[in-house]
Structure formats: C-alpha cells, structure tokens
Amino acid sequence: MPVPGELTFAVPRGAKKPPRHLADLSPAERKEAVAELGEKPFRAKQLSQHYFARYADDPAAWTDIPAASRGKLAEGLLPELMTVVRHASCDDGDTRKTLWRLFDGTLVESVLMRYPDRVTMCISSQAGCGMNCPFCATGQAGLDRNLSTAEIVHQIVAGMRSLRDGEVPGGAARLSNIVFMGMGEPLANYNRVVGAIRRLTDPEPDGLGLSQRGITVSTVGLVPAMNRFADEGFKCRLAVSLHAPDDELRDTLVPVNTRWKVREVLDAAWRYADLSGRRISIEYALIRDINDQAWRADRLGRLLKNHRVHVNLIPLNPTPGSRWTASRPQDERAFVAALEAHGVPVTVRDTRGQEIDGACGQLAASER
Which residues, if any, are the signal sequence (predicted)? Predict the structure, then answer.
C-alpha cells in the first residue's frame, strides 16, 4: 500500500504483469498455489528446496517429484522470468555485468563483483528509474516498470548458481553481500523489494538463507518510505544517495529533493540507524566543479558529524554525452580531508567496470 506522501507511478498502458513465480509467494501461499494445481501441499517445500537451496529451476533435476507433475508445477510456479542477453566482464573476470531480457522484452542489469574477502552483487529493482537524476544513465532513460519480487530474487539466484558452478574466475564461492543499487529506486517499489529481502533472508528452503546484515538498500530519499522501512525491523544497511549537502544544488542533482529536503532525508536516516542499530551509508558522487568544492565538503561534515554514518565517495562514471565528469584527484583528496577533519569516516569507492559500461543503465541503453 502507498504511504501518505510517497511517490507513486502509473503502470504503462497495456503493460503485462510478470507471471506468478514461487519467489513471489510466502511459504503458506506456496502450499495454496500447489494445491490449486492439484498437487499435494508438501510439493511446495520440495519446489522451494530445488529453487532456493539448489538453484535448480529445470524440472529435469527434480528427481524427487513424479515426472508427470513436474511440467505442471514448473509452468504454474517456476515460469521463465528472464533470459541473459549477454555478459560483459573486466578486472580479469572479477567483475561481470549481466544484461537481462525480462518476459515482456524489458531490459535490466545486474553486476557481480568478486573481491579477495567477499563477493558482492548489485541488483536492479526497477526497469529504468523515475527519479530523473541528470547524471545517471538509468534516470535519464525514465521508468519502464517495477520488477516483481521474483524478478529481483532471480538475479541473485542466478548469480549464486554461477558462483557455485565456477562460472566466475577464482573457483566456487558464495555470495556475501547484496546491494540494491542497480537500476531503479528500491523504495519506489516498496512492497516487492521488502518481499525480496524476506525471500533472500528466510532460512532455506523457504528462502536463500542470507544475512540481512549483508544487504544494503539504497534510496535517493523517499522520506515516508524510509520511515516505513525503519519500522520493518530489518538489520539491512540503508544507503542514502545524497550527492549534495545544500538544497539549492540537490534540487537539481536529485529532483525528489524539491519534495523532501536534505535535513528531512537525514532525519529519516538517523531514525533508521537508531531502530536498526546499523550505520548509515551516505553515497556521494563527486562531479567536477559541481559538488566537489571544499565548502560543500565542510558543510557535509557538519551535517554528519556525531552520527552513526560512513561516507562513500564515488568518482563519477560518466555516461555517454554527459557534460559532467569525475573530480580532479586533488579536489577528491581535499574533499576527503575536509570530512575527516569533522571526524566523519569516509572512503572512495573502487571504480570498477568502466570499460564494460559499468554505470547503471549504460548496458541497457547501448542494447536499445
């Protein structure tokens, strides 16, 4: 249900709903769905075991289910939601971006990033984005539609399968971190994103059994949805895409700021930190001569000091045709120093994937 004051988006005329999938349903709903197909309710747990624990959505692998039942169950609860258009890899294979075509032809992206101590997957929650941030490829493309819970979850299931099967260099591995920082504004697709978090973190075989603490949800600052998210009781990390400490500039860089100002967004973030016990991540794309001035760094430091917070500075990955680019190295260093002078923890994000159109939305745009 929409929250009062929350942004809502119309479904494009004639748009088809994604087919019902096991991952859209709670464990109780799965039993009901299986019964509707004329099968015994315990088949729901068998299907969940195959999909969430074994990542097996091919009926031929369901040897504990009668052959005569497999096709019906697959068609009714494990339809094909998305197919790989192509993979693009860099960093000696440690970074792999996937372009997906959804059942209706819509394109979305996910990125798998392997580090020495962890494996992170960046996933999409919408096809396109309605936030209209001018420096973002996804924002400039506009919103096609929300993804279903299952379409979100399946990106991770496919990633976990590829890691297990050694498709990513470095040997078999397990996914440790998930970031909702791909295409879309997660909190503008609230119910499906929350449903996906529950499927990701419910214990096997009801879900994938991942830790909430390994999940980060990013938002540009939809304040009513942030407050609702705080009341869910999750232990996920919340990341706020701030990009400017002053309302005058942020109104331009993040247009939703005309509705909820910087201090309102930060107040909602501090409330989430208090209720979840988790540190807030402030995402800040450094854009040359736009938001990287020393006085803005000082102002940001004053806003954030003495709070449970960490700043993640992101050298801008320019999109084709953009008039903006990354900050000069000396300006980046000065920005870091100004934040540290206020006692605010800060890191500069590792810039991966530029040679494979790493910024969200670039691969889909090039395919179009």
Answer: none
